[in-house]
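Standup notes, protein team

Yesterday: finished cleaning the Streptococcus anginosus subsp. whileyi CCUG 39159 set.
Today: dITP/XTP pyrophosphatase structure.
Blockers: none.

Input for dITP/XTP pyrophosphatase:
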Amino acid sequence: MSSKIYEYKDTQDWYVGEWSPYGGGFYFKDVVSEELSRMEEGLRQLVVEEQSFSVAVIQYNSIMSFVQFVLQMINENQDSQFQAQFHKGAILITEKGQLVLVHLPKNGIQLNDFFSQKNLSGLTVGDTILVATRNEGKTAEFRKIFEKLGYKIENLNDYPDLPEVAETGMTFEENARLKAETISKLTGKMVLADDSGLKVDALGGLPGVWSARFAGNDATDLENNAKLLHELAMVFDLKDRSAQFHTTLVVASPDKESLVVEADWPGYINFEPKGENGFGYDPLFLVGETGKTSAELTMEEKNAQSHRAQAVQKLVEVFPTWQNKPSS
């Protein structure tokens, strides 16, 4: 059997792996992580005899992305179906509904938290995040990002009886907090809310928190884009049409202080819409110096660099520590 080489790379993580019938190793390049070493030891238990893998960790941020990378190698080479998901700060590895490996954080997890029950029907396994939106496009972006991190995603369309939360805040964080904390109290669930918007420098930061209703309370994406082009009609140089997509993410859980992260994605406002992907202002937003609008990127390309992707990467980095904090 010849060796096979694998690579995973995004803006935060970079791994190169080798699958072979010979002895394997675990190598770091400018990366030191006790957690990764413990995780690697556990994953080796899933490998059949006379097979092995090596991984060079060049850049590291998310342990779940590392786990998914190694499981991909294992599944492809020994016809297995291992899957990973987060549960109360632990990582559970399952195959065909059977639990085969549990990886705990260094300081462990409170038993009451790990075995908490959703209702009388029994134990709920796997962390579910309720995204506070009815927008399926936005949900799809979050689901694509969180699936590889081991989380199940729901949105407000799964809870049609929940009331709409008025976004009365004057900042992105105020609006995101309103949605996340209100819905978490109503449902008892962990809720992720974002307030995202476009900030255009020539317009003093507008449309900002009013991005979704720039052309009116019930404005469509087309109407908002038309309004933006109208406001910038006298700005002729692209360099003067600089802008940033901004995201503030808030995760709320009952009896817990909310977690807040934010990120910006710089670019420019084009003179006409281009591209068929995405939603909102994506057809007008030129990404950095690429010359492409956000709507011309694939979902994979967008999820590797967008404001939401950057914010989610920050969120994933601090999320396990936040989740394991005792309730107030």
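Follow-up from PR in the comments: The chain has two domains: 2-113, 126-322.
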